[in-house]
Amino acid sequence: MKQRILHIWLAFTLVPVLMLSAKQRKLFNTMRRFVRDLPVQVKQPVPVYMAAFGNGNSLGLSEDKVRRIADLAALIERNTGLGICLRRSLVRYHFLAPKIPLQVQFGARFDDSKQNRSIAGHAWITLHETPYYEADENWHRFRVLFTWPQMASV
Description:
Layout: H1 2-20, H2 22-41, H3 46-51, H4 63-76, H5 84-96, E1 102-112, E2 117-127, E3 130-131, H6 136-139, E4 143-148
Antiparallel strand pairs: 1-2, 1-4, 2-3
Helix pairs in contact: 1-2, 1-4, 2-4, 2-5, 4-5
């Protein structure tokens, strides 16, 4: 419920701005196309498709504006067959990584109790190994399986 309220707030605060700003509207439309194309991209191995990401043009907008527009594009483009966490992480990474050193974390949570055997996946962004605008409850129970880009070993 809390997440739904945040999504509604995002839409109500950002949509009027998009109507007035041609630059932000252009970025929003570019991001929506990017999200719609993700299902084709993610059919490749993770390192292959991730190597193509991280070079999006944010049109000189602030980090906060780009992040908020990316979140709205990921939220609106629901018919991709991909979870919102993956859509949001990839669009944020693609358009923000040229400006700031982000990493995408791909993780899984395993429940092996007698009543419930399941696995859940999640993707989120980190900045300097700290979740980037991600609520703790969304990532803290997940074990990181893959990070992009991987940090060089010391």
